[in-house]
Predict the structure.
Amino acid sequence: MGLTKRGRWLLSLTAVLALGSVLGFMTLNVHSDWAFIVQYRGTRLLAMLLVALSMGLATVVFQTITHNRILTPSLMGFDVLYVLVHTLALLLWGTEFGKGWPLESRFILEVTVMVSIALLLFRWLFNGSVRGLHMLILLGMVGGLLFRELADLSARVFNPSEFSIQQGSSVANFNRVNLQLLWVGLAAAVFCSGLLFHLRRQLDVLSLGRDVAINLGVPYRKAVTLLMLVIGALLSISTALVGPMLFFGLLVANLAYWITGSHQHRWTLPASVLAAIVCLIGGQVLFEHLLSTRLPLAMVIELCGGVLFIALLLRGVKQ
Amino acid sequence: MIETQGVSKAYHDRLVVNDVSINISKGGLTSIIGPNGAGKSTLLSMISRLTPMTAGSVQVDGLDITRTPGPELAKRLAILRQHNESILRLTVRDLVAFGRFPHSGGRLTEADQQHIDEAIHYLGLEAYQQRYLDELSGGQRQRAYVAMVMCQDTEYVLLDEPLNNIDMHHAVGMMQLLRRAADEKGKTVVVVLHDINFASCYSDQIIAMRAGQVAYQGTPEQIIRGEVLSDIYQLPMQVHELAGQRICVYFR
Amino acid sequence: MAVTSSTQVQPRIVLWLLGLVVLVVVLALVSLNVGASRMNLLHLFTQPDDRITQLLFVSRWPRTLALILAGASLAVAGLLLQMMARNRLVEPSMVGTVDAAALGVLLCAIVAPSMALWLKFSVVSLFAVMGTVLFLSVLKRIPLRSALIVPLLGLVLAGVIAAASGLLAHQFELSQALRSWNSGDFSAILRGRYELLWVAAGITGLAMLLADRFTVLGMGKDFATNVGVNYPALLALGVLLVSMIIASVVVIAGALPFIGLIVPNLVRLLTGDNVRRAIPVVALAGSALMLAADLLGRVLIHPYEIPSATLLAIAGSLVFILILVRGRRQWA
């Protein structure tokens, strides 16, 4: 049950590309002293690696527990949900009660709230009362729109004079990484990925569907709840670092399936992370150093992801 | 032995299964029959903990299914439902191998490989074992799933309408296979069947349901009778003995 | 489609129409009264003060009028689009029409920032037409097994067009401007800056005249051909009308989402799918909704303003989710 020859080839190629991207990111066009470069680029690199890790893993696992390859947590509006929670939480941090909290505890509290809401939404959407893939995606997308506009509204209402500064946080940007949360994000992401790798065989069984998974002895409800918590946490990390991305997860998850041609999570999980690294960091190297364009990578990735989504949708409808 | 005590299932305020208490003893093939909407499939999926019960309890070999750990139960009881669509591109062998998950947690040992070979052989799938599921016909895919359930190597095997959507040739093959599993391997097979004549020809025990309750339970000789079946299906039915088999006629 | 005899429904519809007229008038009067500087309409007659009169005629009156015209046209555009797509879950901002129009505005700003208004309107209309045609032609290629695929596809198409605009805007440092076009409001409306909306109003009038034909359009190509309507021509006209309405509103105020979804769906509960019966109610209700959204935006965090687009998007997505959840068995 290993990989085919083609799968091994493509996976190795992706790994080499990912490594090359990381090296290129650190070494190309170095004009100042190394200590500064390591400090400046190193932190940005780490942040982008975390985003790649979180988005890749969260999307693949979400698609496993929902048994489809179009739906992603971002499409269900979960990352804008984090933005909404964050915007509302800013209100709390402005009060006397919130002032003394260190940044990390604020982040953890926000993630907890976001994950709980996401879990409730997930329960409601996937307990069988909502049927049909298209219904789910549509509810998710419109829900995402609602969260985004609510975040926008609350930002305006609670802080009308500083609104324009806030506005930036609703679009992903890789040049403006929120470095303050890097270390707590790193710890959480490492923990989550370790957990997922530990559960990789259970994930394989879960992808066969609920009935088969229960038949094979997987404690379904517990497992899915745990996985949703992990997905919510990973998504919060990524969104807190760079902002929401609607189609990035879809892109890298489908790349991972294509690269490995396998259903086994011990291959698809790392492949999704590697593909995400190539897209994010390789793309950044390409744009910044090789093409020296100022095109925002996030937008280009979103555009590609959107086109891929339409293609998948049309293919699914035609079958 | 499978024991249910006062098992009920309500959706909103509609009772689909109403206070069912039955015993299914070890060994042999038991069929559950009844008209559409009688609650057959719901009962089967409650027994196999796929659907939570509204009331009542189910015990398998004295183990309460709601309290027994999943893997523990998965080594005793296997369930296969009707629709097993998967988005995955799996080969038949990959699928069958999943049957070993309760035993090995996904890390296949030599002994597991033997079980897989045996299950594939048992279902006559050797020629297809490296083919992808989506390339197979409905009957072949159904057999692949049954092979997975067999590979699980459980005392109890529960199947929900295994003959649905497969042609007559494969349907007969499937019933013979289940019969052999009961006779040769000593498994306890429970099937929900739509076709009462299959139930008549292959079962040791028949449970007949109507409107969420068990109307009759007994051997084919006791259940496959004109007056009993007419009562269950609310339709005039005659039973004829043909070549030693009790065949039910109700077409006109 | 429920065919109710007109004698039964007419009196109820007339009552609704009257009620809506009163509502629009009341909202309009309130709208004239509310703003950064307090003023009382009565002053106009008791103390014809120069400053206040001027404010009224230069700013308040145009704004209120623009709201009424834009609201009515957007609601009618939504209704027409729903007939053309034969799906009640779409509206121009959800299928790419509005985003294509915004792309047109962006291109105008890049190529010739001081372009004449009529020329700009033509360019933007052209883009809106292209966006709509793109959506309808993709729609024609897929088997419509689920009603939900239509809005889904529309949303993603709109998103892709918006992403392309975003890239372009970033390249020419117009991101901020694009963002303001995408979130429409009426705070910058003054005399001489809104008259294009009369075009939209004229088109709305035309749509009312052609109402019966658009009902037929909603029954599909076979039906339309059977009753002797030139389906392709009517479809092309519908695309043009919707696109021109959207173009004028986007040029003047920016994108205003969801009016075309909320209003026709609510009105349909009252009148059924007969366009002729629905269209006046839709227009009036659209005006009322637009006035209400603008008013709320002005008073909520006074003296600041919240763009109507934000409030409309919140209300609209809530209504949309409600429609989906309530009809979930029907759609799936």
About this structure: The interface with chain B takes residues 1, 67-69, 201-202, 204-205, 207-212, 214-220, 261, 263 of chain A (CB under 8 Å). The two ends of chain A are 28 Å apart (CA to CA).
